[in-house]
Amino acid sequence: LQECKIQNSSREYCKIFAAEARAVPDFGAVPEIIPLYLIYRPSNNIPYATMEEDLGGPCEQYCVTERDGSLVARGTSEIVLKCCTFQHWVYQWTNGNILVTDMEGVGWKMTNVRIATNLKGYQGLKESCFPSLLEQFTAAHQCNHYCSILGLKMLEPAKPKGSKSPSMGRKSAQSSPQLQK
């Protein structure tokens, strides 16, 4: 169930990304995340299963999370670069709260996507899901040609937010305007 929610939510982001990319001259083809369906088989000893379209060939990994937790783009092909641009776009679209971390597929059709988020309860996750990958992405992502033609902002590593005194930023009582009698 969780895999379906993640892949299908990522698919919805991908549809919006595709619409924006198609509006840009010369962007070309865009990745498509295929739907993942949950099927119920009541007479089977494993009652739930997932089903998706046959991609017609062996999957290639384009963007993956390595065992050590690092994000890696597998090559510099047009597909890989556009997958990285999609990651950047989702990160920016969600104000840094969601990142599509893994994408593999055949040609432009993607499957087996994963996410990282710091939103508690996102898609039913009880805890945050690999929030360290969000920080790593801002440090490791290198914008490419497709990021720039979509007008994506350069990512800056997250800066620790210092605490401010609640009184900072308030005007003092002496400088507030006085009511005229």
UniProtKB/TrEMBL annotation:
<keyword id="KW-1015">Disulfide bond</keyword>
<keyword id="KW-0723">Serine/threonine-protein kinase</keyword>
<feature type="domain" description="Alpha-type protein kinase">
    <location>
        <begin position="1"/>
        <end position="155"/>
    </location>
</feature>
<dbReference type="InterPro" id="IPR011009">
    <property type="entry name" value="Kinase-like_dom_sf"/>
</dbReference>
<keyword id="KW-0418">Kinase</keyword>
<dbReference type="Pfam" id="PF02816">
    <property type="entry name" value="Alpha_kinase"/>
</dbReference>
<feature type="compositionally biased region" description="Polar residues">
    <location>
        <begin position="172"/>
        <end position="181"/>
    </location>
</feature>
<dbReference type="GO" id="GO:0055013">
    <property type="term" value="P:cardiac muscle cell development"/>
</dbReference>
<keyword id="KW-0808">Transferase</keyword>
<dbReference type="GO" id="GO:0005524">
    <property type="term" value="F:ATP binding"/>
</dbReference>
<protein>
    <submittedName>
        <fullName>Alpha-protein kinase 3</fullName>
    </submittedName>
</protein>
<feature type="region of interest" description="Disordered">
    <location>
        <begin position="158"/>
        <end position="181"/>
    </location>
</feature>
<dbReference type="GO" id="GO:0005634">
    <property type="term" value="C:nucleus"/>
</dbReference>
<dbReference type="GO" id="GO:0004674">
    <property type="term" value="F:protein serine/threonine kinase activity"/>
</dbReference>
<dbReference type="InterPro" id="IPR004166">
    <property type="entry name" value="a-kinase_dom"/>
</dbReference>
<keyword id="KW-0393">Immunoglobulin domain</keyword>
